Each structure stands twice: as structure tokens, then as C-alpha cells.
Amino acid sequence: MVHGFMRLPLVGALLIGTAFAAPAHAEVINVAIVGEPSTLDPMISTQDVVSIVTQHFVETLYTFDSAWNIVPLLATSMPEISEDGLVYRIELREGITFHDGTGMDSADAVASLNRWLDVSSRGGSIADKVAEIVATGDYGIEIRMNEAYSPLLSLLAFSNSAAVIYPEEIIGDTIESVVGTGPYQLVEHLPDQYIQLARFDDFVPRSEPADGGSGARAQVPDEVRFLPVPDPNTRVEGLLSGQYDFADALPTEAYDRINSSENVEPMLLEPFGWPVFAINHKAGLLTDLNIRLALQAALPIDDMLFAAFGDEKFFVVDGPQFPEGWSWRNEAGIEYFNENDPEKARALLDEAGYDGTPLRILTSRQYEFHFKMAEVANVALQAAGFNVQLDVVDWATLGERRDDPALWDVYITHSTFLPEPALTSLFPADSRLGWADPEKEEILTAFTTETDLATRQALFADLQRRTFEDVGFIKIGGFNALMGHKANLSGVDPSPWPYFWGASLD
Amino acid sequence: MFFYLMRRLIGIAIVVLMVLTIAFVIVRLAPGDPAALMLGPDATPEDAVALRERLGLNRPILVQYLSFVANAVRGDLGTSIFFNQPVTQVLLARAEPTIFLALFSLLMALAIATPIGIYAAYRRGSALDQTAISVAMLAASIPSFWTGLMFQRYLATDLGWFPAAGYGGPDADFLERMRHLILPSIVLGIVNSALILRFTRASMLDILGEDYVRTARSKGMGEPRVVLRHALKNAGIPIITVVGLTFALLVSGAVVTERVFNIPGMGNLVVSAVLRRDYPVIQGTLIVVATLYVLINLITDLLYLIIDKRVRY
């Protein structure tokens, strides 16, 4: 029973409450991701989950559209590139505000790009090709190169190890709190619980219509929340029970359950990536070309993929380094793919004078499909005359061992299909594979200095052929990724790095 | 009593120091580099070297150990490699879910085990007694992850009675967060009830056969009073012991259950820390757990003083 003297304040409180009530439809999108990102500074990590989260609040000068063409984002337009390919002149958009209220200008861009060359993996790998980066005005910069490097723009567009633009004031070796220009800003971050992003009201979108991640980035949801959920099955259960609006990286076994549920839908990313047998060219058995060719000839790619993924919905037995529909796709060298020929392998081993030294394959059950492929390969290789030693370790151990060429002949990993072939870390001679074949080096140098697209495509075909001929590394077909979302969620494109600025629950 | 306490506290300090040393050594024996893991798959070996240096992982091992011990004594458990935050802060953030999950699980286990255990002893040999023992064995044998998965799938996803995972989002108040602990507590309660049930039953059986129980009955005392007031109190010591140990076990990390239900407690943290080779967090968690274990043991022993007046230290 409410006493008389209490009634007025109560009614007052109620009225005030309704006046300040939250909008009836405050849309929040909950996204389950594979784990806690190691950082919110995308320059210093190549983890995919870092790209997925940070692309919402920091931006790069360029980005990719739905067909993986490079288009401007914070730059006004495509750069003016000098004839010799050594000078890139970039105009920055005016009126862009950072989340801390300051405006973006060329000083911010120059400081950020210099930091990127210094601390990021991808930036660091090309730092010796860059002479200097200077401001040419309040909103203009110039990147001056020592040598031509055509993949530079792709690096500036990539959300992984990203060349994002920060305010000059926060630049340092480590950045305590990241400030960007993106459509969402960081509100709260409780590690292992959630990363809460809210719409940034002073965001200035581009005027072009949205096309993939490019063009106008709409700010449809009020908030986007990333929830680290390390256990894949828990991501499935949370999706099915309605707790998550979108769940990344789901086990393929859950497909049928998700498909048959009325409230959620599976989303297949076809194709997502390619498993790869990385070859040790620095030391050990595989420094001998014949033994490498024997390995390549003996591998039963279709069996390996079937064992790993179980259902043709999830894999494709495809040899070319890029999938159908991609501009880099070609058929050069394809006769070497999936030969599955133990006799040929045995002959090659004899020619090499193979003495029975075990071929060491380093893998991990962290990615169960790596392990299953290794098991099938093991059987096939033994039938072809190899002795095989399977080293199965946890991922942290694998990460350490693969940096020591004395410890492995093959290690298994996988990659997404990258928009620019030169971004693949397997090609350079100074990678941990150490593939330094002179003919490949010649093609690769031509490939990265050539600016004409058609010529680059022809050169890439040569590069692909050489990869088969010299067995630089072995691509094990391609595989699709399974994600899931609520049936009434729209505005999210399938992508290895999905973005949610256009997401809405109808 | 005072000397007893002093002896116990010194013992605790020695145990903690031993755990500290073992944790430090064992964790570093495992191969795997925290720097390379944090940087991601496409980082170069040079990046990893630079990060290792920045994190102080290049210093001689003895220097690392001594500085670690010196700091730990002052309550500074170091800085998490992964979170770039003090380890104490990382652990404190996980204290609430860990403690409340352990508490609820213990209450659940007691609620299941105590009445059944008492009644099974009282009606020894009956159908209920036999069933209770079999079910207890079953509950103890089924792995907690299976129980967790089944409950999560059928009670949370299918029936929607509970949240499937997590600890509530930014909008969740305390009650909402506790609601997320109900299902994992039921799972842990079931798994841990078996031991308490068996101990309660065994202890009660002992006591119910004693002379003074027969005397109480022959004095005309009502059964409930005999069983609950006299017998249970005397059966208390073994039961309290196993309850204390169960609580320590629960607090130290219901690792699998926390993983399945994505509860941000210490169990989940320690798994992630091991996978990420976050040495300071692994060490810090081991120290906290060891300290808690010995403290709970001490509290249990002190509880004996209250329950059984014959006990003297």
C-alpha cells in the first residue's frame, strides 16, 4: 500500500522515467567470435579476429569492394602514381573526425603510416622499399619508394596488419587506447566477456553506395557487441538458443542442426580458404627437388579433403591458387595437382636416392582438419615409399617449432584467399619456408614491380606454374567456412572478416 | 591455539612458495612462444624476437624467477602478457563469477546429497538406499562436459529455461549475471554431489549404530530429533571435510564447465592462459588456487572446533 505522501514523488519519477526512456527500438547486434583478440590495435597483430573487431572503429586509406577491387576509403580517390611507380600521391578526405573529437589531417596519416612501417608485420616486410612518407599539404601525402612495389595499395587496403590512420597524438610503440575514424567507437571492453561498440555520431560516410566493405558504411545498429566464445560448440548452442545474432567459425558438423532450425540460418562462405603443406626449403629432406616432387605426386588431395571436411558442401578439390571467379585464377601447372600417383612418387624417390630418413610432418589438433589431412597423407606417403614421422603438438608449440628449420620438413597451416597474391607470406625467400628458387625470384620481382594489371595476371600464372614445378608449397584444394545467424538478420555479407555496420534484425 | 595457528600459517607460506616455484618451472618447460602467438600467423620471426624483448622474456631465467618471487611476496603477481594488465586485476575481474559459481554449485550439491545421504543411511538396505548409491556412482562417473553439453542443449537451447552461455552483457545487473550461473551450477552440483552423498551416508551409518543413539531413542526422543539433532552433528566432521574439499575444488576452477558455458571465471582463464602461454597469469592462478586450498583446509579444521567440542588444538 502506498502512503499518500509517497504518491506524488512516485508519479513524478514515473513521468520523468518515461520522458527519458530509451528509444523503443535500440538495436544491438550480438556477435560471437572465436576468442578474445590479442589487441585492439590492428597494426600489431595478424590475427583475423583482431581485423574483424577493429575494422568497425578504425579505417585505412583504401579498402576492397565486393569483387576485391581496391577503392578509396579515407583517401578521396585512387592515388596518382608516377610513371616509374616510385611516387604515390594521395589526397585525404577533409572533415573527417576522430572519436576523440580531433580532425584528421596529413600529419596524422604520415605518423600512422610511419608507425605501420615500423611495428606491423606487413609494413615491416616492405619498409626497406619505402624511402619516406611526407605531407604535401594539410590533406595531401606522398609515399616515395626506393623501388616499385605494385602490391603497396593492397597492403594499404587490407584490414589485417592494417595501415590504419590514428591521431598523431596517440602514436607510440604501444597504444593504450585506440582512437579511430570508423562508424563505431569503443564504449567498454571487458576481456573475455564483451567488446561493446556504439554508433559514432560524427562519422562521415562516403557518398558511393555500399559495395562489400566499400562505399557508404551505414550505421544501422545502435550498438555492436563482440562476445568472445572460445568453444565452437558453445557458439552453436548460443546461436540456436537466440543469444547470438551472428556466430563466426562454426564446426561443419553443426550444419544440419542449424539448417533445420527455424530461427537461424547457416551462412557458407564459399570458398573461405585453402589448407597448405608448407615446405622446408632451408634444411632437411625436402631441399632435394626430386623428393619434393615425389611428395607432391603422392598426395591424394581429394581423399585428404574428404577426410578433413566430410561433406562436399565444405570443400572443393581445386588446384589453381585462386578460386573460380577471381581475376587471379589460371590453370598453369595444373597437371601437377592431385596426381595421387604412388608409382611416380616411388620412381622419384629412387632417383633421389632416398635412404629412408623420416619425412617430418608438423601439425596440430587445434585445427582438427589439419590433423585429419595429415593422417590420410601419412598412409598415402608410406604406400609411396616414404617413411613418415607425424609430430602432433598444440598450436603454441607448433608456432615455436616452425621457426626452427631443423625441426620439420612440412608443417600444415591454412590461409584465407587474399585479394593480392603478393600478400601470401609463403612466396618471399626470407619467409620461414625459405623458398629461394632463382626462377621464382625473377618472376616474383617482376610481379611486384609491374603495375599493369594484365601483365601482372600473366606473371602470376608463371608464378603458379613455378610453384608446382619447384614445389614451393602444396595447396590442398579449398574449403568453405560455416557461420550462422538469426533468420531475421540482414545486411551482413559473407566474408572472412565479416562486418556489421549494415546489420539489422527485422 | 595460538601456536597451532602460527604453525599452520607458516605451513601455508611454505606450500605457496613451493607451488610458486613449481609453477614457474613447469610452465616454462612447455614449448611454445607467447610472443609469436599474440602476433598471429603471418608475423615474421623478427617481430616475435622484438616482442619477446619488450616483454622481458629474454632475461636470464634465474633473474626472471627471483624478480617474480620478490614481487609476489609484495602482492604483485606481474603483468599479463596477453592482457597487458596486472595479473591481480585480471584475477579480480574473474573473482565474482568463480566464487558465486562455486557457492551455488556447493549449495546445489548439498541440497541433493544431504537429504538423500541421511535418508539412505536411515533406511539402509532399502530400495532408495540402493538406488541412491547407484545414482551417485553414475553421477560421479559421467564426465562433467557431457552433462554440461546435454543440459545446455536440452534445457537452454531447446526448452529455453536458462541462458545457454555467457555471463550477461553490458546491460546485465547482478541478478541477471547470477541467472547465467544456474545451469552450470546444476551441472557442477550433480557431479560433486556424489562424493558428499557417499560420505554423508557412511558417516551417518557409523553414528546411527552408536550406543548414545539407542539411548536417545529409548528415552522416547522423536526420530527427527535423534537423526538430525544428535546423529548428524556427530557425523559432521567427515562431512565438513569433504564439503570443504569440494568447495576448494570448485573455486580452483570448474575448467570444463566454465568453458562449455563460457563463464569468465578462473577455470576458463587458466585454459586460455595455457593455450596462449601467458606465463604470469598461469603462475598467478596457480598461486591463488594453492593459497585458497590451504586456507579452506585451515577453515575446515577450525570449524571442527565448533562442531565437536572434544577437539582441541
Description:
The complex is a heterodimer of chains A (506) and B (313). Chain A has 506 residues and is an alpha+beta fold. Chain A has 2 domains: 28-226 and 488-505, D-Maltodextrin-Binding Protein, domain 2 (3-Layer(aba) Sandwich); 271-480, Dipeptide-binding Protein, domain 3, CATH 3.10.105. Helices cover 29% and strands 22% of the residues of chain A. Chain A has 14 helices and 20 strands. In chain A, strands 1, 8, 9, 10, 11, 12, 13, 14, 15, 16, 17 and 18 form a 12-stranded mixed sheet that branches. Chain A has a 4-stranded antiparallel sheet with strand order 4-5-7-6, with helices on one face. In chain A, strand 8 and strand 9 form a beta hairpin. The radius of gyration of chain A is 25 Å and the shape is globular. In chain A, 46% of the residues are buried. Chain B has 2 domains: 2-87, no CATH class; 95-264, MetI-like (MetI-like fold, Orthogonal Bundle), CATH 1.10.3720. Helices cover 77% and strands 0% of the residues of chain B. Chain B contains 14 helices and no strands. Chain B has helices at residues 2-29, 34-39, 45-54, 61-73, 87-93, 95-122, 127-141, 144-158, 174-208, 211-218, 223-251, 255-261, 266-276, 279-307. Chain B is globular, with a radius of gyration of 24 Å.
